[in-house]
Amino acid sequence: MTGVRSYGEQGQARGSEVSVYVESHARPPKMLIFGAVDFSAALARMAKLLGYHVIVCDARATFATRKRFPMADEVIVEWPDRILQRLGKDLSSRDAVCVLTHDAKFDVPAIMAALETGVGYLGAMGSRRTHRHRLDRLRQQHVSEEGLSRLRSPIGLDIGARTAEEVAISILGEIISLRAGRRVTRPLTETDGPIHDERAFEHARLESYGPDGDSPERS
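Predicted structure:
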């Protein structure tokens, strides 16, 4: 917090004889976005407006490029869990991990690694069907129910988002409301029924992965 504080001659908190200007600096919160898809580009742009240090990560060098994500502070070609092994110890309640890969090869290891950190927000994109299958895979990896309760999935608030930009707003809205302890609308993770933007998710998946799922094999 930055401002002027007044003290008495002996340092009394209620005095007014001495004025001191105090300027504090805190590192910006970090947002790690996994998956170099259209939704990630929109989320990175808006997260920067909110002051986040944005890191976009994808194991596919063709998609994780500075040209596609000029707004990101860092664009890293690597598997998500390996990045979290390096950066996870520095993540705190102010930080966020958003898993937008929509692919079990990426998102299950990423979520498991994120749960080992102190990150304040962990969300994953996908339909309810994808989320159920993801939970099954995580349980098979012995992730506890307590750990699963930290996962916000389907990601975002239930505001009827369709476009990539609207989805980004729903994700950031959920992050802000959780941080502030406010409940402005229901998060998708607590609702039933279809997700309004499922077709948009599928379109972005085909745009980024191709119809045959052109995702890399781990080396």
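Summary: The CA atoms of residues 84 and 114 lie 7 Å apart.
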